[in-house]
Specification:
about 60 residues; alpha+beta; two-stranded antiparallel sheet; 1 helix; elongated
């Protein structure tokens, strides 16, 4: 069984690797495409750039 210390060390290495790739405060958000709630119309984040603030909410509303 893996000890807590070994687990924490692995998690720290993983976090250090992926935090380096994460956007920093003030960076332009990367473009992506999603579909509306009906799944028919695509929406790109870049369509709103420079126009209005955009808030993204990820979760389940069930």
């Amino acid at each position: 069984m893996t000890s807590t210390r070994q687990h924490l060390k692995r998690m720290h290495v993983w976090q250090k690797k992926y935090d380096a790739q994460a956007p920093k405060s003030g960076d332009v958000a990367p473009n992506f495409e999603l579909f509306d709630t009906a799944g028919k119309n695509s929406i790109r984040l870049s369509n709103f750039r420079g126009q209005v603030p955009v808030a993204l909410i990820f979760g389940s509303f069930t």
